[in-house]
Amino acid sequence: MSSAPTPQDVLNAVRRTWRSAPRIGPKAPHGNMEFDAGTLTLEGEMPDIAAKKLALELAAAVPGVTGIVDRLHVAPAERLEDGEIRDLVSRALEQEPAFAELALSEIVKGGEKILRDPAERKRGWIRLSVAEGVVTLDGEVPGLEFKRLAGVLAWWVPGSRDVVNGLGITPEEADNDAEITGAVRMALEKDPFVNAGQIIVGTVDAVVTLAGLVPSESEREMAECDAWYVFGVDRVHNKIEVAPFAAG
Predict the structure, then answer these.
(1) H helix intervals, 4-143
(2) CATH of the domain spanning 7-74, picked from 3.40.50, 3.30.1340, 3.40.30, 3.30.1890
């Protein structure tokens, strides 16, 4: 009868799994990793959202791991102060037409600052805070598409290192692949650097597949990141092809 793996066995298995994954390999997080009583705690910084989510998925599949404390963050496109990030996220939420009837507020120095307060918050509300580059969204919104859109807008802000999307849905709404596909499509359509008309989106069991033609590798990568940013997406298969003639 084999003995249960030791904490060090589990940590070594996680590292081996990461090294064998093409999307992680040398991108494995530099930081602390601890394992105790089935719970794996991960801290560090990943180069992009895909590497972070894949690292979490692979670690969760290692025998002996029953829970994960996620403290992995993503290296931001630009290092900004928390106040700058908060201002940019606030502006993005205020300017989004879909949120016109939602109350908006932000946490500043421990106090709540009202940005917009529709009467009695009938349609819902979003409150944001930022700490060490991590954006946290709390509140209640009237549908999954609102929750997902708010998360994508927060991820798009240059200084964001992570987005903790704690928005509740009222009334409760069941999720499905069609909802995820619609959310990814919406993110692509709102991204000014992506021609959504040239990209096909499909989802099976929360795994998104992107196909089509784009004129550059950078646009191909941005489309994939947009899909990863959508709440509820477990994995992204990027089958988009690059062809210069695909512009327009």
Answers:
(1) 7-20, 49-60, 82-95
(2) 3.30.1340
